[in-house]
Amino acid sequence: MNPKPASEPDVTPVDSQWLVHCSPERTLVARRRGEDIELVKIFEQGSLLDAQQEAEIAKNLAHPGVVPYRTAGQDPVTNKPCVTMDYCEGENLERLVADAGPLPAGRAASMIAQLAS
Description:
Elements: E1 16-22, E2 26-33, E3 36-43, H1 48-59, E4 69-74, E5 81-86, H2 93-100, H3 105-116
Antiparallel strand pairs: 1-2, 2-3, 3-5, 4-5
């Protein structure tokens, strides 16, 4: 078997993916590769430098309430700048409020305290 040419990136195939969020500036896609799930923030607008700067800032914000960033680079699927992060299950606050209405004061205060820390 011939090895891959050095110019071809070693990319593990994506088993599945799903859209998490979309805006004119950024698209968030979750991708499963085997047992691993990563979140990919694709820069619809912006440069590779923007992605690299965001990843660098996020690495300096290491905290249990901040999703760990993995890498910054070119997305192999779209060829656009991107950052990859750990995928964390959780509630979507916008969807929660749309479905259930305003949050009770205690729950809102608890969320704000976590954000403030």
